[in-house]
Design brief:
Shape: globular
Distance between the termini: 107 Å
Order of helices and strands: HEEEEEEEEHEEEH
Strand content: 15-25%
């Protein structure tokens, strides 16, 4: 009997531990205002929806959350292909929670988990969320995205964008509190956003390298004069 009670107590503790973690729906809907778009020229307006996944992901998305922050790097608005802004991966107030890809059923789709478990926001607790999207040629993880971003000086072309910061959302608890959607056309949800094309930044030689090049050129001229 005692063993049975102990087992039930352990089971209850595990159940409470799991349910204590918050849940959120990391998918968007078919509503026009929640879809992801792209542009075709650097700095240009959106020209169409992100393409459908036809067997391998064309775009990846990452979800970040915070129990206290209200902005990313001082701004709560969406970012479209801007290398001069702070993304959530560069702001310590935000924590990576999970990934999604472009879906297989419709253009502009974010296809992740309908009940993504959050590591730092409990069920029935509130927090804010932000989503980063990027093209698959960059990589599939935030680590690869950060390497490509290179502090705002990417060496290859790619698409990147970030959603506006949501208002406060109450995380689901798997029981009485339903799991909220991230995307929506009204506050506090996040509307869709645009992934903007970024051109590669040409590598600039270090001052020491430039000085050596100048010295080499001067030496070559001097050598030619002596031979004349």
């Amino acid at each position: 009997m005692k063993k049975t009670i102990a087992l039930l107590a352990v089971t209850a503790a595990v159940t409470l531990s799991v349910s204590a973690q918050g849940l959120v729906n990391f998918n968007n809907s078919s509503a026009a205002g929640t879809k992801i778009s792209t542009n075709t020229v650097v700095g240009g307006a959106a020209t169409g929806l992100a393409v459908i996944n036809t067997g391998s992901a064309s775009f990846y998305y990452a979800l970040f959350d915070s129990a206290s922050a209200t902005n990313v790097g001082g701004s709560a608005t969406a970012i479209t292909g801007n290398t001069g802004s702070t993304y959530a991966f560069g702001d310590a107030s935000w924590t990576l929670q999970g990934y999604a890809t472009n879906g297989t059923t419709r253009a502009g789709q974010v296809f992740g988990s309908a009940a993504l478990t959050l590591n730092n926001i409990s069920g029935a607790a509130t927090g804010r969320f932000v989503v980063i999207g990027w093209s698959a040629n960059i990589g599939s993880t935030i680590a690869e995205l950060m390497t490509w971003y290179n502090g705002g000086s990417p060496q290859t072309a790619g698409f990147i964008g970030q959603s506006a910061v949501t208002g406060l959302l109450t995380a689901g608890d798997g029981a009485g509190v339903s799991t909220p959607s991230l995307f929506g056309t009204t506050s506090p949800f996040s509307p869709g956003f645009t992934l903007g094309l970024v051109a590669p930044v040409a590598a600039v030689p270090e001052p020491g390298t430039m000085a050596l090049a100048a010295l080499g050129g001067a030496s070559l001229l001097l050598f030619r004069r002596k031979n004349k």
